[in-house]
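Figure 3 (text version): structure tokens given as input.
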């Protein structure tokens, strides 16, 4: 289970005990602390798209600097993507040129000079690491990303970079990896919860086709609720990551307004949280 921490600068964030045990710098931010004014109060890390009201980018970048410094990667270049609710993954190797902003919803890297980031305001942030912490991923996944398989796609890219996982399926490699270096580790961050995420019949139908009924609550009118975090947990299990290597949370961005921004609750006029992660160097 994720743990809430308070940085010396006074802002709050969540950390994964599993990733911390490996020594991977990472964080899931909250809105607590910071200097942004309403409606972006206070630790804002992004602006809403298509909204006339915007936060000052100087404040946003300062908050990112504070977050990275708090978890031990303040001197590393932050990479980000233009998130499009799809399944595309970008891999960045040491020495690769990279211009932040390409359209994708996940980043994978083994470059300890860089920090990967995604921004959320109800969608699910997911962080991944190899057992030795030298290959990591940051993923943004809403319901479209779940259906598009962005988490399994990122795992596939991470696997391709890891010698311990290079051969065979995740299920075949799992025991070998666990014996050698602790295996793949995942952390699922705060997002909109099952009870709060009401969707239309077309989304319910797609989840019913892809998963079993335990992740869907259908109403008589065809609409219902879907469990985003539960679906991602299932995808991680299906990829061969055992449950004891997955950290998760019960925090709901829609319900817990004191801690989180929520696009749905605040009708689009709100800030952004971020998930960040950086590889361990050799």
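Below: residues designed for each position.
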């Amino acid at each position: 289970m994720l743990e809430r921490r308070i940085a010396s600068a006074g802002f709050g964030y969540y950390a994964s005990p599993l990733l911390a045990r490996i020594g991977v710098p990472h964080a899931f931010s909250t809105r607590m602390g910071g200097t942004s004014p309403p409606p972006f109060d206070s630790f804002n890390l992004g602006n809403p798209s298509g909204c006339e009201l915007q936060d000052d980018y100087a404040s946003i970048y300062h908050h990112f600097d504070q977050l990275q410094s708090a978890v031990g990667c303040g001197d590393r270049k932050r990479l980000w993507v233009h998130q499009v609710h799809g399944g595309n993954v970008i891999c960045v190797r040491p020495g690769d040129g990279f211009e932040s902003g390409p359209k994708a919803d996940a980043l994978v890297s083994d470059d300890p000079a860089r920090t990967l980031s995604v921004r959320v305001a109800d969608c699910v942030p997911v962080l991944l690491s190899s057992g030795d912490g030298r290959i990591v991923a940051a993923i943004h996944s809403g319901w479209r990303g779940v259906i598009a398989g962005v988490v399994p796609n990122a795992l596939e890219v991470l696997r391709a970079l890891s010698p311990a996982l290079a051969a065979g399926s995740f299920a075949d490699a799992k025991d070998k990896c666990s014996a050698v270096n602790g295996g793949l580790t995942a952390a699922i961050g705060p997002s909109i919860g099952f009870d709060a995420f009401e969707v239309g019949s077309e989304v319910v139908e797609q989840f019913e086709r892809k998963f079993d009924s335990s992740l869907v609550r259908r109403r008589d009118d065809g609409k219902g609720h879907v469990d985003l975090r539960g679906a991602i947990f299932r995808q991680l299990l299906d990829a061969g990551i055992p449950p004891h290597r997955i950290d998760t949370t019960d925090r709901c961005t829609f319900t817990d307004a004191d801690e989180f921004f929520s696009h749905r609750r605040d009708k689009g006029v709100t800030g952004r949280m971020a998930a960040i992660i950086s590889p361990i160097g050799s």
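Residues 3-168+182-192+246-277 form a domain with the CNF1/YfiH-like putative cysteine hydrolases fold (CATH 3.60.140.10).
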